[in-house]
Model the fold of this input.
Amino acid sequence: MIENYRPHWMTEELDSLRDLARRFVAEEVTPNQKRWCEQGATDREVWRKAGELGILLPDVSADYGGSGASFAHEAIIAHELCAAGDTSWRVGKQIHVIAAHYIERYGTEAQKHRWLPRLASGETIAGMGMTEPGGGTDLQNIRTRAERTGDGYRIHGAKTFITNGSIGDLLVLAVKTDPAERAKGVSLFLFETSTPGFRVGRRLEKIGLHGSDTCELFFDGCEVPAASLLGEVEGRGFYQMMQDLTYERALVSVNCAAVMEYAFKVTRDYVRERKLFGKALLEQQNTRFQLAEVKTIATLARVFADFTVERMLEGTLDTSLASMGKWWVSEQQCAVVDRCLQLFGGHGYMLEYPIARMYIDARIEPIYAGSNETMKDLIGRSL
Ligand SMILES: Cc1cc2nc3c(=O)[nH]c(=O)nc-3n(C[C@H](O)[C@H](O)[C@H](O)COP(=O)(O)OP(=O)(O)OC[C@H]3O[C@@H](n4cnc5c(N)ncnc54)[C@H](O)[C@@H]3O)c2cc1C
Done:
């Protein structure tokens, strides 16, 4: 978008990774997109192939099977997936990466050695089980309960809107270990979906992200060992979730900025070709004004997203800054895609045009990874 633009954290090694990721997306993701959307989920094969290439958990330590690289590596891969219009695998992959980060950051050595190598190879697919039918924003008030038994816990409850819900093998699961407490009563568990009493409910029908499975999950007296508590101490779950959310929010900024670039490019190409009143649609002043604004917004978003990557690399991305990026870039993405779609006229409403799919897929970004209202609340606390 910007001539000769290169964030200063880019390296030759990251250039090579970008090429590798671009090839992988072109060969293994884009050709499967339509089929994944029809079947409502990705295949396991793409996870294993990504694992073989070492692009599934790029910034998890090599001691635990990751590639031992940095957040910039994850951001480059996320950018390539979004810039190619993927809204199937990249959603599940992002959740998988986030789950792995919880394990790396808060898990015991035994938990890290047991799970991270399998997550890095794609043998095991992970999900995050936080949201419940009663609410996703008010996580202190969750109802799913883990009761102490002699040598472990028994889990009862339900989760909803869970990405990778039907294909996942492992969940980072938020439960109440002490229902008398709010935040201090929340703990995270590493929950295996093969546990008796676990059941996947409906795979939910969504307006977009059709290739990413989003499910209801039920836990009917699931017996789990004490060693499945993430870390060794109960009551830390809420604080762990709050700490780790900046990672996810930084990725949303990267993703949405990449989608805007993609929307700009497909729209510019379309209006160059589309002839109306004897000339290209691009030659109408309104079209040029619209695309000039879109290009400006997309450029600002990209620079801000790259800045959040820089802060992540320095370890200085705070909640407020991550929240600014998450709400602003995701909101701009929806507005930009809408304006681009208008320039396609009726074609923009047809699903065979990528802009139509971008329009329905974009709408989730202001909602998940912490709603945009929550982001403004968090920024407000820093005022
Ligand atoms: C496609 C998809 C995938 C998802 N994947 C996952 C997943 O993998 N794991 C997972 O745990 N969850 C997942 N979610 C859930 C998502 O994180 C929640 O939908 C989100 O956190 C909002 O929670 P909610 O839907 O319960 O809305 P609610 O919490 O009921 O909020 C409703 C509205 O009220 C607003 N609101 C809330 N509190 C306040 C307040 N104090 N002041 C003003 N307004 C407020 C919210 O911003 C929102 O606009 C997914 C959701 C979708 C749609």
